[in-house]
Amino acid sequence: MISAVYQRVMGHPFVYEVVRPFVVGGVDNSPVWRVLDVGPDDVVVDVGCGTGDALNHLTQFRSFHGFDTDPIALRAAHKRAAGRERVHFEERRLEAADLERLRPARVMLSGLLHHLSDSDVLDLLSMLAKSPGLKRVATVDPTYVRGHHLSNLFARLDRGKYPRKPEGYIALAERAKFRVVHHSLIKSHPKRGRSTFAMMGLEPLTA
Q1: Structural domain boundaries of the chain?
Q2: How far apart are the C-alpha atoms of 52 and 55, rounded to whole Å?
Q3: Helix residue spans in the chain (DSSP H)
Q4: CA-to-CA distance for 63 and 87, rounded, in angstroms?
Q5: Inter-residue contact 124 to 101 (CB < 8 Å)
Q6: Are the CB atoms for 172 and 113 separated by under 8 Å?
Q7: Of all helices (H) and strands (E), which one includes residue 136?
Q8: Is the pLDDT of residue 191 over 90?
């Protein structure tokens, strides 16, 4: 019961977008969007899109498709997207049929992998690796780094049950037949951030 209440509270848009950034010293997701490198002709899929933070960073795309299972977060996303054409949100999991239909060039997995077990990460990444026309996937997640005691505590307290060391994320990507073209550690905010994240840019081996 306590765990369920904690999950609901931490997932509320106000907590996620106001309280959480205050605690960790700010959240700036622009670095991972730069790694994704979206162009004006790209179809973008954002898996676990949450409240639609992507729209704070994207200035050009052919179409944007967000998938999430949280109806509260998606209500905030729809509100954020009001008046923006070519933006679509769906309250469900991404499926292989969606990739075949949409043929995204760029896929964002922001703060998603640490919510998934190894087997679920491999299933998702393997499905993406087979997506026709895929050029790049970007990921960013809480991570454990030796000596980063406060950041490691934040990772342990995160709603996601599977934070990994940076090499753990890299190994899963490579097992799923991706080439890791970028990997780095970033702060939650470049100036004030107290939390460390592992960021990756991935390209399918067949690309």
Answers
A1: 2-204
A2: 6
A3: 2-11, 13-14, 20-24, 30-36, 71-80, 96-102, 118-129, 149-157, 166-175
A4: 6
A5: no
A6: yes
A7: strand 136-142
A8: no
Can you tell me whether residue 102 is helix, strand or coil? helix
Contact 138, 108 (CB under 8 A): yes
User: Which pair of tokens denotes residue 45?
Assistant: 């899929």
Closest CA to 130 of 98, 166, 108, 171: 98
Q: State pTM to two decimals.
A: 0.88
What is the Cα–Cα distance from 39 to 73, expressed in whole angstroms? 26
> Greatest CA separation found in the chain?
46
Which tokens belong to 119? 């087997």
The two tokens of residue 142 are: 């809480």
Burial state string for 138-147 with b = 16 or more CB within 10 A and e = fewer than 16: bbbbbbbeee
Give the C-alpha separation, 34 to 63, whole Å. Answer: 17
> What architecture is the 2-204 domain classified under in CATH?
3-Layer(aba) Sandwich (3.40)
Among all chains, which residue has been given the structure tokens 């730069």? Answer: 34
How many secondary structure helices (H) and strands (E) does the chain include?
9, 7
Distance CA 164, CA 179 (A): 19
Q: What is the pLDDT of residues 109-124, one digit of tens each?
A: 999 999 999 999 999 9
* Three-state DSSP state, 55: helix
